[in-house]
Amino acid sequence: MINPILVEVTRGALVESVHTGMLAVARPNGELVVSIGDVRRPVFPRSAIKAFQCLPLIESGAADAFQYGDAEIALACASHSGTAAHAELAASMLARAKLDATALGCGAHEPMLQASARALAASGATPTALHNNCSGKHAGMCACAVHHKEDPAGYWLPDHPVQQRIVQTLRAYTGEALGADVRGIDGCSAPNWAIPIASLARAFAAFITAEGPGKPHRAASERIAKAVWAAPDMVAGPGRLDTVIMGRVPGRVFMKTGAEGVYCGAFPDLGLGFAIKIDDGAHRASEAVTLALLNRLLPATNGLAETAIMKNWRGLTVGETRITGTVATALDQLAALAK
């Protein structure tokens, strides 16, 4: 199946580039209310599933044992920008488990926020694993191993008990087998499993409503959702969509971006989960579809334009990034259904 065009990029009056992809919106029982493209094809959700990877941290009692509050739990679910606040909190999470940055298996990269990267360079320091956007997730995984009295060395390997608990959680929520045949290695070295978009949308709906497969995990999923709404700056960073939207309408939408054109989330009041995958991995396209969905289901977010105006270096308007009629029609119908 060839996926339809979800987003167009124009220059002048002409379409210059297009992004094909998939969109699914589902209920906790798996019922699809929107299906565009090959939503049954497995895709790697990448960082979009960090909340599910965080569930064992809560359910094991590790978060309580190490006195993790909202900020720490939000950071465990984050693809953070690498600010000093992010790095320092990740270090604090490790210290409470009597570990330090050398325990992290995620590798080091420059802070994602340019201002933080410049400040770090100006100080003469080099990036560490604490600046990796996944350091909070990995700190949580380390803490989980320590709490279980497991050797934290190699906690990121697929056969380590930490990862086995995570994949069991994902299997329960998605209804997918998730064996080695669909397992890859994420940018941070932790396992990542290819999951159909339809199953991801169902998983997020079940997570936010605690219905269906989410029912046994109600206490933990509610704690995670409340944490990211209380500390949205920890989830991403200044100006980034996850932080901006969840800070603007806490309790109304739970959302998380992933690399390679993935965006997932859920609307608690509507009992709906969504999952987006752009075939060429373009973040601009996944964000455009996400904004269109938000604008139709959450009027309070209408201040953020879904059509991005493109300007050149001189400041002249040269084109725009916009959703196609295929997406607009499906989302308009969804909005009418949700009223």
Keywords:
single chain, 339 residues, alpha+beta, Beta-lactamase, eight-stranded antiparallel sheet, two-stranded antiparallel sheet, 13 helices, globular
Report what the structure shows.
- The protein has 339 residues and is an alpha+beta fold.
- It has a single domain (5-304, 317-338), classed as Beta-lactamase (3-Layer(aba) Sandwich).
- The chain is built from 13 helices and twelve strands.
- Strands 1, 2, 3, 8, 9, 10, 11 and 12 form an eight-stranded antiparallel beta sheet that branches. Strands 4-7 form a two-stranded antiparallel ribbon.
- Strand 9 (262-267) and strand 10 (272-278) form a beta hairpin.
In short:
The protein has 339 residues and is of the alpha+beta class. It has helices at 50-59, 62-65, 70-76, 84-96, 114-122, 135-147, 161-174, 197-209, 218-230, 232-235, 241-248, 283-297, 325-338, and strands at residues 5-11, 14-26, 32-36, 42-43, 183-185, 191-193, 195-196, 254-258, 262-267, 272-278, 308-311, 317-323. The strands form 3 sheets. Strands 1, 2, 3, 8, 9, 10, 11 and 12 form an 8-stranded antiparallel β-sheet that branches.
